Amino acid sequence: MQGTVLCGINNVFTVLSERIRYECRLKGKTLDTETAEYNPLAAGDSVNFEPISLNPPQGLITSRLPRKNAFIRFNKKLSKPQTIAANFDILAAVTCVREPPFRPRFLDRVFVSAPENCERWLICNKTDFPVTEEERRRLRGFESIGIKLFFVSVKENRGIEAVRNAIDGRRLFLVGQSGVGKSSLLNVLRPDADRRVASVSQKYNRGRHTTNYSLLFPEENDLPEIIDSPGIREIEVYGIDPADLRFHFPDFAPFAERCGINGCRHISEPRCAVKDAVENGELDNDRWLSYFNLYGQLERRCGSGQ
Ligand SMILES: Nc1nc2c(ncn2[C@@H]2O[C@H](COP(=O)(O)OP(=O)(O)OP(=O)(O)O)[C@@H](O)[C@H]2O)c(=O)[nH]1
Ligand SMILES: [Mg+2]
Questions:
Q1: 39, 255, 275, 292: which has the fewest Cβ within 10 Å?
Q2: What is the pLDDT of residues 9-38, one digit of tens each?
Q3: Which mutation among 128, 157, 184 tests ligand 1's pocket best, with the greatest number of atoms within 8 A of CB?
């Protein structure tokens, strides 16, 4: 049988197939996937499985079907790639400007890690807090690289309808730092979800995030299909050659054409038009810093063979 992985906790996976939720384990110790991964299956994966009982519904997963896409980060602690979600149509980075503070460079890393074959959204929640001109400018910058921007407040129920309408029957994946309100947003889009939310100070006191595993809420009763994920503290990008990183910064392209050196890395080369654009304010210095930091990270990892 085929089914969809809703979640996986300690190698027990909930697989939905024909409206029945099966509690599944892997058949054998590991799945035959291409690379050494921390988790071979993530919320959103399609799998083949053998049902072993119906009461309660249980099964054994035999293989993973080819993925359309995935959101993968490099887990530094485990030294392995970790898949947060798979097979989604829209990746929505959720952010806010206060509680927790705005971290645009974190968002840069999310979008660099996003697969190409999905729509990209940026949802700025908690707009009941004032957004400064500087913050607004940085947020608008994402629009210029093809990201759809929403301003919402779950607390004041503002902007939610626009998000709901834009989903349009597709699978939405919510990702972002802890405390920005991913689960709160999910709860208003899917009142049946009833996911636990907690204040940032509560999270801090508990020393961990409120949501601790990715969970897919499948399409039901005309409600949108959504994957909620645990807050990510850091994103180390994965699977990008440092030389290709510049293609993930399309706002650099119009300037890069004028660089003095063919294949300029925009790091320390002379006559670099990207650096010039940063210096004369045509390009955001913070965007270049993101690029510079990521370049270093990728190069170090390349050098260490990971
Ligand atoms: N002021 C304000 N607070 C909000 C808003 N939306 C959510 N919150 C609060 O922000 C806190 C964190 O919300 P969560 O939904 O748990 O955040 P999360 O992104 O799911 O966090 P993790 O599960 O830890 O990744 C809660 O106290 C929410 O009530 C909003 O629009 N405005
Ligand atoms: Mg959450």
A1: 292
A2: 988 999 999 999 999 999 987 776 656 677
A3: 184
